[in-house]
Structure formats: C-alpha cells, structure tokens
Amino acid sequence: MLRNAHKTNPVFRREVNVAEEQINQESVEAAGVNVDSMPSLEEMLREAELNAQEHHDAWLRAKAETENVRRRALDDVEKARKFALDKFAADLLAVKDSLEAALATGDNASLESVKSGVELTLKQLSGVFEKNAINEVNPLGAKFDPNCHQAIGMVEAEGEPNTVATVLQKGYLLNERVIRPALVMVVKGK
Prior knowledge:
Elements: H1 5-8, H2 10-30, H3 41-82, H4 86-104, H5 111-131, E1 134-137, E2 149-155, E3 164-169, E4 171-174, E5 177-180, E6 182-187
Helix pairs in contact: 4-5
C-alpha cells in the first residue's frame, strides 16, 4: 500500500516533484551550466530551422552551379566537335586556290607550266598533311599487315610470301590511326 501512496496522495506527490526539481537543479549547477542562460526549446527550434534553411539554400546554389558547369562543358564539347576541322579546312583553301589558278590559265599554257603548277600544288598539299599529322603509308616490299593494308589479290613474284608486291593506292594514317588502308597485291607463296 505504501508503495503506491505517492500516486494517490497529492501532498506527497508535490513533495516528490519539488525534491526531483532540487536534484535536477543541483545536477545542472554541478555540471557548471547556468539554467537562466540556457535557451528555451522554442529558441533552439527556431535556430535549428534557420540553420536548416541556410544549408538548403547553400545546397540549391551548389546544385545550380553544378548544372551551369555541366551546361558549359556540353557547349564546349559541341563547339570543339563542330569546329575541329577549322584549321585543317583553312590550310586546304590555299591548295584549292592553286588548283583553280592552274585551271584559269586556259589553253595557252604549256604542258611544262601545267606540270610544274601541279607539282607545286602537290607539294603544298603534302605540307598541309604533314602539318596536320597525316602520314602516307607506302608498304612496297613490307610484310602484309591486315591492320594497315587491304589485299586486292595475290601475284606470283620473286620475294618472300605474304609481302607487298605492288601498291595500287597508298594508305594514310592520322596520328598513327589508319584512315585509309593501302590497296596492295601480295606475293603468293610457292
């Protein structure tokens, strides 16, 4: 009966509550915390909400900045793809001008002058290729390589089997990558 007396007796209950408050007050003071300077729960909640709003705003700004960086990168890639041949095309314009000038000379040009004009134009085109890392592949006498050569047929000829006997069309590499394989005839084995 006495165990549950504090639940039913209002005087006893009030004394227990006062005793608990004194114990709590003494514990807080012993911990060195000033109860009067502690913020209320409402103040702490407002402070937490403001802090959460600041973090949310910072997150939105970071997200927007990331989207802007992504969009700018896509634009840069598109421009690079679109204008990748700009320099090469500008170099080829001089070659085209030379060919047009050769055709404009008319019927009164001698064969020698036309031939020298074509040689100069070819030299100009070779310079453009060299400047843009386009290299010629002329595999005459080399071992047949299916990565760089395209065999049109086989011929009986002197030499080691599977070597290039005749080059029908030169191949080309762009920065060491085949852009056109050389068309070749290969020596047939005996």
